[in-house]
């Protein structure tokens, strides 16, 4: 067993347990640490984080609602413009099928640009109903 003091230097040996002197007032009693404070801190941090996330999500939700509302008017205007274009193009196609050379020129010009004229264009938008063709 090792001695508590090194014989040559009269200093405490490395790794030797140091005993407090009875006069120092130090008493080596086991202490228990309550887990209440760490759990309370973790709970408060989680509560704060969830509150922050909830407010951020609410702000983003409100921003999306405003963005959708701001797009309603331009979307309606573009639908009206698209519908009027389809009506004009369909009218030009009917005239071209009837033998009008100027209407044929317009229809051919539209086809060169990749615009096809459908007799009944499919409705577009969030309320569009798609019905598959049956034979």
What does this structure look like?
There is one protein chain. This protein is mostly helical and 135 residues long. The protein has a domain at 36-112. 55% of the residues lie in helices and 0% in strands. The longest helix has 62 residues, at 36-97.
Quick structural gist:
The protein has 135 residues and is mostly helical.
Features:
mainly alpha, 2 helices, 135 residues, single chain
Pick out the low-confidence regions.
129-135
Averaging pLDDT over every residue, what do you get? 81
Global morphology = rod-shaped
Describe the main β-sheet briefly. none
- Number of H- or I-type helical stretches: 2
Percent strand equals under 5%
Secondary-structure blueprint of this entry?
Layout: H1 36-97, H2 101-112
Helix pairs in contact: 1-2
């Amino acid at each position: 067993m090792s001695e508590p003091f090194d014989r040559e230097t009269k200093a405490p040996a490395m790794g030797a347990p140091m005993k407090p002197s009875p006069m120092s007032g130090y008493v080596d009693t086991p202490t228990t640490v309550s887990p209440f404070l760490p759990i309370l801190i973790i709970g408060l941090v989680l509560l704060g984080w969830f509150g922050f996330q909830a407010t951020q999500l609410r702000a983003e939700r409100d921003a999306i609602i405003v963005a959708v509302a701001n797009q309603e008017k331009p979307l309606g205007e573009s639908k009206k413009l698209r519908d009027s274009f389809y009506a004009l193009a369909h009218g030009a196609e009917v005239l071209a099928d009837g033998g009008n050379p100027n209407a044929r020129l317009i229809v051919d010009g539209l086809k060169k640009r990749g615009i096809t004229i459908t007799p009944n264009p499919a409705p577009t938008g969030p309320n569009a109903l798609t019905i598959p063709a049956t034979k």
